[in-house]
Structures are given as C-alpha cells and as structure tokens.
Amino acid sequence: MSPGPDFLMSPGPDFAARRGRLREVLAGLGARAMLVSDLTNIAYLSGFTGSAGALLVHTDPGAGDVLATDARYIDEVAQRAPGLDYLLSRDPVADLGERAARLEGAPWAVLAVEEHVLTVSAHRGLAWRVGALRLVYAGRAVETLRVVKDPVERQALRRACQLSVDALGQVLTEVRVGMSERELAVRLERRMVDLGAEAPAFDTIVAAGANSAVPHHAPAEHRLARGELLTIDFGARWGGYHADCTRTVVVGEPAAWQVELHALVAAAQRAGRAALAVGASAQQVDAAAREVITGAGHGEHFVHGLGHGVGLAVHEAPLLAAGQEGLLRAWTALTIEPGVYLSGRGGVRIEDTVVLTETGPEVLTGAAYELVSVG
User: Fold this and answer.
1) Closest alpha carbon to 147 in 334, 298, 349, 366
2) Cis bond before residue 318 (omega within 30° of 0)
C-alpha cells in the first residue's frame, strides 16, 4: 500500500534531514552510498509514493541523491520530491547501481543495499551491473530510523486515529441484529473516508460470535445475533500514516462470561500501557500484559504478541513480544493489543495506538474501554 499525500500536512516532512540521518548510518558502515529499494522507505526519505522506483543516497551530500522511476511518475517526482535528481528507468535498482559504480569508480568503494527487500534475481543482476563496487548489507537501516516519529509524523498519526474513533462511534449506533459482518465493515470503512481519511489503513476485521475467536477473521456473510461478541479491528489512513484500533462489543445484553472476559483483557491492556516507558524492553512490556491473562488461567488463549510499531506501514518495528530484547525509545508509535480467544465461543481484543513520549504513553485511539452493548 502506497503512503498518502504529504501535502495534507503543514509543515511537511523534512526529507533532506531524514536522508542526512541515513548518511550518518552509512558512514558507520563504511559505505559510499546506499541503494534504497523498499517503496515505503523511499517514501520516508523522499516523499515519492509511486509503485516503482529506487533511491540512491550518497554518504557525501554534495554527490547528489538520485531517484529512479519510470515515465508514469515523472510529474510526481517533480511535485513530491523537489531537489532530488531523477533518472527515468525501467529497471531502477539495476540502473542506479550502475550509476553508483560509474560515479564512485574506485575498486574499494562500497554500496549498501537492502538485502531483505531485493529478490535473488534482482540481487544477482545488481551484482553483475555494479562491477567494481562491493555490495554490503545495510540491515534495516531506514526502518530503524522510522521507529522514532518526528512532530509531523505524530500529528498525522493523531489525525488518523481521531478519524478512526469518530467513525466507530457513529457506526456503532447503526449496528442492528441481522446485519452482516461484511456490511458493517464496509459501512465503517466508508464512514472513515467520509470523515476525511485517505482510505482505510487496512482491510477492516469484523468478527461476530465464534468468529471473534479468530484473530484475523475476514468479514463474511455471518449475520449478527443477540448475545454475540463482536470484535472490530480497523483504522484510517491520513497523510500516509496508519491508525490501528480494536474494540470488542456485545450485541444485545452480555452474558456473565463475556463481561468477565472483557474485563480481563481490559486489565491486561491497562497493564501493558502502564509498562510502557523509555528504556523498557519490548519483552518486559509484553510480559506485563501477558502475566495478567496467564494469572487468570488463559495464557494459552493469548496467541500473539502484545503489539507492534505503526506509521507509514501498519506493521513496523518494534515488535512487543517474548524474546524481543530491544529497548523502547521516546516518540515511538506502537499498538497495545492483548486478546483472549476461546475457540467455538468467542474472543475479546482491545487495541490502542499510542505514542511513547518522554514521560509515558499518549493514547491516540481513546474510544470507550467498557463493554458496550449494541444493536
């Protein structure tokens, strides 16, 4: 999914400053340049959001960074990536690699690449084209830069999240017994767009009854019935940035076990949010929420990590899960989404998008946490 238009934000992102931070990373690798081929990373570094392209970032800012794409996007390059040299190409990765080889020349020159993005075929072709250049793996250098959100990014996330919760609040009043999961999903997606979103951030999940025990259930023709749990996982995209929110409600009056299950997940979600702090480890935050659920005897029913980063992509670094040793940094945007899933009966998930400030989490999706009855 391509990020949306940055012109919706004022002031816009400082793409030159972002490339400047990447230059510092490249200097540490001993690389003379980096060939960026992941489209989301290209958007982050340049503003270009086309479906085909590559970006060459030189360690020496005076060498001039170059964006390559095909003729379909020539106008967008001029409008969205001013100040960048550009190259028309049918094979942007290979052509920029060859250009780097010509510019750098020396046999000791090093070109950093995103090996986790390049296909085997593209990597072989690039290695053949660059001649004397030595290819090195840059790791997830740009993804790591993207973890910490600047003020422009945080404002876009706030707007995306506000559109999301406003749409949910309106649509929940329209839920009726007999409405299909698919109808409800489409209605919510349309409402987000009507309120000003560029598009849904991802395919909305609406899961009713036993389907709510399937974490990534695809909405189908199941008709809502009284007494069913109803999980809605959704988000709006605005300015290229994604919201991610989940709430579980009940159609009609809840049963005692549904109230109890919802309260348990809400307690785990509070524990996860409370554990968020600059310098905390990702696995510590996961454990704080997981211990609440495990202590209630439902550890085996919490089948995924507690959360993930969110921004230009709906799933980014960091991952909040067992075994994740990374320490959280200020101004990281991520989700907190514990869930308990009882096969054949139903499940509950409660999810917020938050920004970790220097003093704690700022919740961006502040929809109601109590178990709401609808329909």
Assistant:
1) 334
2) yes
- Check: CB of residue 149 under 8 Å from CB of residue 317: no
Q: What is the reported pLDDT for 62?
A: 84
- This prediction has a pTM of 0.93
Tens digits of per-residue pLDDT, 6-60? 434 556 889 999 999 999 999 998 888 999 999 999 999 999 999 999 999 999 8
Query: pLDDT per residue over 248-276, tens digit each?
Result: 999 999 999 999 999 999 999 999 999 99
Residue recorded with tokens 């109808």: 183
- In the 3-class helix/strand/coil scheme, how is the chain assigned residue by residue? CCCCCHHHCCCCCCHHHHHHHHHHHHHHHCCCEEEECCHHHHHHHHCCCCCCCEEEEECCHHHCCEEEECHHHHHHHHHHCCCCEEEECCCHHHHHHHHHHHHHCCCCCEEEECCCCCCHHHHHHHHHHHCCCEEEECCCHHHHHHHECCHHHHHHHHHHHHHHHHHHHHHHCCCCCCCEHHHHHHHHHHHHHHCCCCEECCCCEEEEHHHHHCCCCCCCCCECCCCCEEEEEECEEECCEECCEEEEEEECCCCHHHHHHHHHHHHHHHHHHHHCCCCCEHHHHHHHHHHHHHHCCCHHHCCCCCEEECCCCCCEEEEECCCCCCECCCCEEEEECCEEEECCCEEEECEEEEEEECCEEEECCCCCCCCCEEC
| Res 83: pLDDT | 79
Average pLDDT over residues 327-333: 98
Q: What is the model's pLDDT at position 98?
A: 84
